[in-house]
Amino acid sequence: MKRNIFGLLLMLSVLFGAEINFTAAVDRTQVGIDDQIQLTVSVSGQDIGRVPNPELPDLTDFDQLGSTSSQSTSISIINGRMSQQQTISFIYFLRPKRTGTLTIGPCKLNFKGQTYSTEPITIQVEKGSVQKPPASGGQPRISPFQPPTQEAVPIEGNLMLVASPDKRTVYKGEQVTVDFTLYTRLQLGNLSLDKLPNFSGFWVEKIYDARELNFTERVINGKRYSACLLKKVALFPMQAGELTIEPMSLTGTVIRPARSFFDFFDETEPVKIQSQSIKINVLPLPETGKPVDFTGGVGEFNIKASLTPDSSVNGEPVNLTIKISGTGNIKLIDKPNLPPITGIKILDPEVNDKTSIEGGRISGYKEFKYPLLPERDGRHEVPSIKISYFDPKDKSYHTIGTEKLVFTATGTQKIVSSPLTETGIKVLGTDIHHIKPNLTLLKSQSDQTPLWLVIIYPLSIVFLLVAVFYRQHKNRLEKDVGYARRLRSGRMMKKRFSEASKFLAQKNEKEFYAALARAIFGYVGDRFNIQAMAMTKEELKDELAKKGLSEDRVSQLLKIIETCEQARFAKAMVADVNCQNLLRETKELLSRL
Question: How far is CA 352 from CA 302, 332, 338, 403, 437, in A?
């Protein structure tokens, strides 16, 4: 019985544990018609066992000179578990029959019920031979102290920083995902970030930033490279037209092995690697069929609403929370247009959002919390609230809405008027008597004004002026959002700096830089009544210039923002920053705005 169970487990481990990697590569992609090409087809995986020969593509443009195979096994122990990696290589020697561009099609492998396929390989064939002729002077001298001289591998074509967008034509607000990947066939050292890519015109969401360099093997056009994903971002274009993603660049050194036994140190060569610029064609959203309740959402979304609490007592507000969730440019969605509700005063909403990454796409939610102030008792109905969004998949607009909501209000304050007659004059009495002057009393009165009246009269005027000012101030707070934001900017700035200082004391640098960036964007947004968080650096620069800020202060502000972004998203590639000094400089700069 035990033997049967062991056999069953062994079969299951073979069936479900045999994930393999199937690749094809050539020793070079530029050859002469007189040269040979070595095509290596490799199968690797854990405990793959016996592997059938791969199925070769049509090779009518090549002479097949012969073939061989090799096998290797490596064993590693990680956390006490032993794993065995097996690689089987099938090697074919080919010679081209004609010059020009030749293609080796995909090789195929049928293994354990699955079919695997490699990428096609392109070969450039010239006349003659491109091999380096042997050195003159007969046979080279063989010495045990000097290995055979090898020609240095050129940097071009063997070291690349590639920016790869998943789309090159999108709609305004549609996500573009860009990978920045380092490919190398050389040994590198002292690699550091030289310049971050510029995403002007895009709203940027980080998906991945490399904290350490983890390389995997990739085959590109028949060449094997060590590949490392450095950065992955989701970009949402905020304007139509042609937008450019500027290059990312790195600096480092290429390490070349010593050519002689007596060379004690490897040779190094400084190098700068730069990705290519990318052009993204951004289409405007169609005007035909655009609903009036379109709020800027591009993607796929849902909407729901709730009331908390479900009743109002003594004029207390009820919070109407509208939650829009889904996949797309969730942070760029504007607040929905609420219809007027009889008997209810609607205040400006509190806005919160949260994003996450699902399958490389940005998803999440955005909440709008509206305080509702009932102005009369009774039953109040909140009608269905609708929004529209654009779905790039079917290139059309969709409208969604919430359910109707109901709440009751009791104890609402009412202004009660005094009873008046039909003429508007209140009747105080019906008896009218003649006026009889008292001359004695008049003579005994002092001609001086009482002291208490002298004091109370000016105080009452001051009190009246203060009451008028307070009323105007309160009305303006309710109606003028910019005025309200400007007044609270200083208080909110101190609160945000306090949060940043707390993270600094905890030595949590990532949260410190995030809090510092929030403090900058929050204060600038409140101070000048702009949506700073939704702007690119260029847009923020232009907006602050319009508000009258000097170019020097705007540059200082943008430099601090860039420092925060680099420290958060590319910490391993930037020099250390004195957080305490950065916090002090930011406080001083914002206080002078």
Answer: 16, 12, 18, 21, 74
Contact 260, 229 (CB under 8 A): no
Strands 169-171 and 278-283: parallel
453 domain residue, yes or no: no
Residue ranges of E strands in 141-222: 159-165, 169-171, 176-184, 187-195, 202-209, 216-220
| Structural domain total, the chain | 4
Whichever domain contains 232, its CATH number is 2.60.40
Digit-coded pLDDT (tens) for 119-169: 999 999 998 877 544 433 333 333 333 333 444 678 888 899 999 999 999
The DSSP H or E segment spanning 518 is helix 509-528
Q: Which domain holds residue 510?
A: 481-591
Q: Give tens-digit pLDDT for 20-69.
A: 888 999 888 888 888 888 898 988 887 677 788 899 999 999 988 777 77
pTM of the model: 0.52
Token pair, residue 292, equals 């009036």
- Residues whose CB is less than 8 angstroms from the CB of residue 37 and which lie 6 or more positions away in sequence, other chains included: 26, 27, 28, 31, 62, 93, 94, 95, 96, 123
Question: Locate tokens 């299951």: which residue?
Answer: 12
Residue 388, beta-bridge partner list = 294, 399
- Report if residue 289 sits inside a domain: no
Query: What confidence score (pLDDT) does residue 428 get?
Result: 43
Quick count: other Cβ atoms within 10 Å of Cβ 391? Answer: 17
Output b/e per residue, 342-355; b: 16+ Cβ within 10 A: ebbeeeebeeeeee
Residues 205 and 355 sit within 8 Å (Cβ to Cβ): yes
Closest to 353 measured CA to CA, from 332, 372, 371: 332
